[in-house]
Amino acid sequence: MKSLRRLVCLGMVVLAGCGALQPSPTIPQAVEPQLLISVAHRGGLCRSDISATGSIRCTHTTAILTDGMLTVHMNGKRAKTTMLSSDELATLTTLVNSTDFTAAKAVPFTGVCPTTNDLFETFYTFVTAHGTEELASCRVTIDFTLPLFQTLLAILEHYE
């Protein structure tokens, strides 16, 4: 019995050395697109027939994924889905990864948050190669002259 095991093992070694025993090819797993940018407006009151007061808090969220898909949700319902061009996606990805977010967050917001006047606050989320960066318009003063914000706002205006 030991001889038979040795013979089988020796045969497998010989076959493996000749390339006869190749591992079965693995099927690559599809990579799900990840979040690149999210812009969420929260606050203000929206009309609603289901609320006792006749209104609910408004939400408007735009998400851009790493495959270029742009999706707009209004009050939790998908309102629009479209695809960015490859140039727009490449530009945004480069800007997200090259923006100095420490500098972008350096100036605190010192005004009155618009939510106190029934308006909205805007939350920006950027997923960079180094982690997630978040800026909220009632916490930091957003510098809309930064190339990232200029490009993002132009793209959002174009697609929304």
UniProtKB/TrEMBL annotation:
It comes from the Bacteria. This is Lipoprotein. PROSITE patterns: PROKAR_LIPOPROTEIN (PS51257). It comes from Herpetosiphon geysericola. The lineage of its organism: Bacteria, Bacillati, Chloroflexota, Chloroflexia, Herpetosiphonales.
